[in-house]
UniProtKB/TrEMBL annotation:
Compartments, record wording: Membrane
Metabolic or biological pathway: Protein modification; protein glycosylation
GO MF annotation list: glycoprotein-N-acetylgalactosamine 3-beta-galactosyltransferase activity; nucleotide binding
Protein's name according to its UniProt entry: N-acetylgalactosaminide beta-1,3-galactosyltransferase
Transmembrane segments: 7-26
Primary location class: membrane
Family the UniProt entry places it in: Belongs to the glycosyltransferase 31 family. Beta3-Gal-T subfamily.
GO cellular component: membrane
Residues covered by the Fringe-like glycosyltransferase domain: 77-252
Source species: Strongyloides papillosus (Intestinal threadworm)
């Protein structure tokens, strides 16, 4: 829907509410009994009028958020590349399409077969995480060769990832996508030769178009610096390849050292209950990882292990549920104090993005 159409609908709704409001109050003849009746707390007509005004404000704010999200989408283009399997099409992939994938500028699944209904391309004949390197090499190469530098950023995710695209756009809105950027939850391991590898894993990794170009045209062309061996996890191998072309796995936390790309579920990372699974992340995390919500940033980018129903649960909590009296710390009213100006809101997002994350 265009900006003109949204504005026209908004004006029409406001006009209808205003006319209804006038009809209610102009047809009423106040008497002394009416005043006494209202003083006793029975404000039927007044409540109706105030409700109409309130609904006008609510609808205006909904439109404002849509406009802000659309402007962010226009300013920061992100292509989402999802690693999946045919066996997970109905239980996982479809639910991503129904929720957060629609906020990407475009998206594609990489699987073991071509499927136009997703859509997906065949990345490699063999399935399983252990063969993900072959599939993601094919997927990343396909995106670069088909789209070139059309998209500013590429977000690689699994089919059990949930991503908050508005937060990701705020994270990168002040960064130059033509440079080599590589973000995510930073892990460390040693390879077979004892070399330390720093790589991004879990809920997905984010790379700039500059990094993608160098990865495909330099690293992928040289097997000595980026092995095409299929049976290597893609996140580990991509980290190694980037390191060999001098693109560093960057600090993706906020200025308070809190994590925003989560390699596991928000419930596991936010909980104070320890587990063997979480202990593994703590051991391999490049940075300190305390248990509980103190380790989590206010503007998360992605969660992992969000399967099936959890996709819709997160969609509801993030985009539909509200808490009385609470609003985003970023979005402020304009100087008039009456309406939320989209341009002002975008400037606030840029300012907050610049001051809240590490560069």
């Amino acid at each position: 829907m265009t900006f003109f159409m949204r504005s026209l609908i908004l004006i029409t709704l406001k006009l209808l509410f205003f006319i209804t409001y006038l009809l209610i109050f102009t047809q009423r003849n106040y008497t002394e009994n009416d005043i006494m009746y209202e003083e006793e707390g029975n404000f039927d007509d007044n409540q109706t009028g105030m409700f109409l005004i309130f609904m006008t404000i609510v609808i205006k704010n909904i439109v404002d958020f849509t406009e802000i999200a659309n402007e962010l989408k226009n300013d920061v283009s992100i292509f989402c590349l999802i690693h999946t399997s045919p066996k997970y099409k109905e239980s996982r992939a479809i639910h991503l399409k129904n929720t957060w994938l629609k906020r990407c500028n475009d998206y594609l699944f990489v699987s073991t077969e071509n499927d136009q209904t997703l859509p997906s391309i065949k990345g490699f004949r063999r399935d399983g995480y252990q063969f993900s390197n072959a599939r993601m090499r094919k997927g990343l190469t396909y995106v670069y060769e088909k789209f070139g530098d059309k998209y500013d950023w590429i977000f690689k995710a699994d089919d059990d990832t949930y991503a908050i695209m508005e937060n990701i756009r705020m994270f990168v809105i002040n960064r130059d996508p033509s440079e080599g950027h590589y973000y995510g939850f930073k892990l460390k391991i040693k390879d077979y030769y004892g070399h330390k590898i720093k790589y991004m894993s879990g809920g997905g990794y984010l790379i700039s178009k500059g990094a993608l170009k160098k990865l495909v045209t330099v690293a992928f062309k040289n097997p000595k610096i980026c092995s095409p061996t299929p049976n290597i996890p893609d996140d580990v191998q991509i980290g190694r390849c980037f390191s060999n072309i001098n693109i560093t796995a960057m600090d993706s936390r906020d200025i308070y050292d809190r994590h925003v790309f989560l390699p596991s579920s928000f419930s596991e990372f936010g909980s104070l209950i320890e587990s063997t699974h979480w202990n593994g992340f703590q051991k391999r995390s490049f940075y300190d990882l305390p248990k509980g919500m103190s380790a989590l940033g206010n503007f998360p980018m992605s969660f992992h292990y969000a399967i099936g129903d959890m996709q819709y649960g997160l969609e509801y909590l993030l985009y539909h549920a509200e808490v009385a009296g609470r609003t985003s710390r970023i979005i402020q009213k304009t100087s008039s104090g009456n309406e939320l100006n989209t341009e002002h809101a975008l400037n606030m997002i840029k300012m907050y993005g610049k001051s809240n994350f590490k560069y």
